[in-house]
Amino acid sequence: MSESHNKPFDVPGLTAEEIQARVLHRDGLMLVIDKPAGLPVHRGPKGGANLEASFDGLRFGLPRPPVLAHRLDKDTTGLLVAAKNDRAHQSLSAQFADHGRTGAMRRGYMAFVWGVPNRQRGTIDAPIDRHPHAREKMAVREGGREAITHWEIEESFQGRDGKPVAALLACQLETGRTHQIRVHLAHIGHPLMGDAVYGPHFKTKASHLGPRSQTALAALDRQALHAYLLALEHPTSGAILEWNSDLPEDLARLRDCLRAAL
To answer: Are strands 77-83 and 67-68 parallel, antiparallel or unpaired?
Structure first.
């Protein structure tokens, strides 16, 4: 039997009860979670709060905690799926490795970017590897791993001078490289708003925003990226399941301010 619920949540969850409040789907083989910003998904070398550690107290009567089938960056919000046993993990991992090329897997992201692309939609096909000088970063590099991102303009926004200043893009992944969307969109000249790693040279763009938009962007204090769509095949039934996640409060506030050019 499956359960679905969607409760509001403001602070990154660390306890079993707080994580439970973010569970959108739960059945005998897997669970889907709406991750808040600021919560790492994996245990780091220095310890600290993370989603995997939270799973230690959220076993649903299982002999071991659920295992994540993929990951999101610490400050990216949205949908994550975890497996409850080895069979489910193998199925989900295979689907993420395939990225919908032969199956039902779909992963959709909402990305607020600086500038407005000069066409409605496009595909970025550019290999990604470690940055040659900054090992904590990724970069488009010849000889890197294949990386393909599809994007489409959902909405464009004007600055206080009436000129285009930003856009909301719907992105879908055909591969799943570290920081892929962030790297690819910066590569085509449209880095994510709030991304201090891949878009630091665009900070001056904020001066073209209205005062309320500037305040909303400053309050965001993270890259403006949300994993809003997840579709996959159930590990045993084969049913095609799909979940959607609304923009979190901070991104919804940014969107509303940008729409009004305030």
So the answer is: antiparallel
pLDDT digits (tens, 9 = 90+) for 240-249: 999 999 999 9
- Give the whole-angstrom CA distance, residue 40 versus residue 59: 19
Distance CA 144, CA 175 (A): 13
Tokens 């489409």, residue located: 152
Question: Residue 193 corresponds to which tokens in the numbers above?
Answer: 């708003």
Domains and CATH numbers, the chain: 1-98 (3.30.2350.10), 106-262 (3.30.2350.10)
> What's the rounded Cα separation, in Å, for the pair 74 and 186?
19
Active site residues: 73
Sign of CA dihedral 181, 182, 183, 185: positive
Q: Cα separation of 243 and 238, whole Å?
A: 16
**What is the model's pTM?**
0.88
Instruction: List Cβ neighbours of 83 (8 Å cut-off, separation of 6 or more).
Output: 29, 30, 66, 67, 68, 69, 89, 91, 92, 235
For 179-228, the pLDDT digits (tens) are 999 999 999 999 999 999 999 888 788 999 999 999 999 999 899 999 99
DSSP letter string over 218-244? Answer: HHH-S--EEEEEEEEE-TTT--EEEEE
